[in-house]
Amino acid sequence: MTTSPDATAPAAPTAGTARHRADGAHDALPVPAATGSVAEWTERYTHAVMDTFGPPQRVLVRGEGPYVWDADGTRYLDLLGGIAVNSLGHAHPTLTAAISAQLGTLGHVSNFFASPAQVALAERLLALAEAPAGSRVFLTNSGTEANEAALKLTRRHGAGSRPRVLALEGAFHGRSMGALSLTHKLAYREPFEPLPGGVEFLPFGDSDALRTAFAQDGENVAALFLEPIQGEAGVRPLPPGYLALARELTTAHGALLVLDEVQTGMGRTGRWFAHQHPHVGGGVLPDVVTVAKGLGGGFPVGGLIAYGPQVAALLGRGQHGTTFGGNPVASAAALATIGVIERDGLLTHVTELGERLRERLRSTGNALVGEVRGEGLLIAVELTAPVAARVVARALDAGIVVNPCTPTTLRLAPPFVLTDEQVQPFVDLLAALPADLAEETP
Ligand SMILES: *Cc1c(COP(=O)(O)O)cnc(C)c1O
């Protein structure tokens, strides 16, 4: 049998790769964002982009560290971090270099093939999750896909003989039909019914309701889905002991405990996973953990960690798939993000800055500022009047991005690289909120 010389020859630079240059200037196409004002781009947006998100607050063209710039050249302090995504801030040089290097080497191959970056990322996630031997990872492109995979996996538990799935009121698990069936908000669900069935919502953090849900028909429960801290609902932590009880009841009835750490995972709360805080998780080992948001530092990537060989085997060959999930570039982005968090000691920084920031937010002396809660750099400021949207608008005009996740709640999920000094303008803004804000014309 003869082998073609091409098949064994070492990879030689092709004409295409030879034209690449490190400075990136060669072959560059014009960047459209280089011209046009915020008003012009907003107008064009309304004629080209589907109106699912409402009018954009600004049109952004550039970012660096915790700052972004709009098309008019105005700078903003980004305390939302792309909704708990940009852990390393914007345009982090290590992340940018890792993505560019991987894309310039091998960008995408489909899951008919493996890549070192994909395998290394799966290994890193298993190690960070402290998952036992036999655990496995499935990589996705987003949080909703991670939860979709988790829901499919739980359907296979008991060979499909467990029709009940439990979730909590206030839960947000994503927008695809399966993930949406686990999401509580009526406005998100109702237009798309019928959704996949069997999901029951229990009152948030209510231990007795949880016991009751298992006391009757507990053997028909496939899984209980929980966010250790509910993100979209307003940074609401589960009450102490709740996760331990959830583990006890799921184990007793042979159901799976699925923790959605899409928002709380990958260092956001000062540990790799929120449930690893003793006071949050009480030492529980889950059956499934889902991640996304911060995993790739801004590059779209998510995943599901299945704990132990039995859970990992629930999705077998051909039972789930994805074209992009875990592609080399996404995996390299996640590895670089994890690497920088470790190298720069960012988990400690997240913990310490988070504590100091909450303390400063609590001492503004402004009567509109109520409870301040959260873990690490996932923080909620509860306002004493339903003025969150107005505070957000004021902040934006003052060059600060925050998010109103309920009418009375501001959410902060800033980059881990933020400093005390950089965040001070937001503390000052809260301190200076006028008492009659509720009466102001919007
Ligand atoms: C954002 C989020 C999701 C959905 O993730 P997408 O990447 O937007 O699909 C799921 N669960 C939680 C807890 C989230 O915060």
Automatic annotation (TrEMBL):
**Which reaction is the catalytic activity of this chain?**
N(2)-acetyl-L-ornithine + 2-oxoglutarate = N-acetyl-L-glutamate 5-semialdehyde + L-glutamate
Enumerate the subcellular locations listed in this protein's record, separating them with semicolons. Cytoplasm
Disordered: region residues: 1-30
Keyword set includes Transferase: yes
How is the co-factor bound, per the entry?
Answer: Binds 1 pyridoxal phosphate per subunit.
Keywords associated with the record: Amino-acid biosynthesis, Aminotransferase, Arginine biosynthesis, Cytoplasm, Pyridoxal phosphate, Transferase
Similarity-based family: Belongs to the class-III pyridoxal-phosphate-dependent aminotransferase family. ArgD subfamily.
Q: What is this protein called?
A: Acetylornithine aminotransferase
Phylogenetic placement of the source organism: Bacteria, Bacillati, Actinomycetota, Actinomycetes, Micrococcales
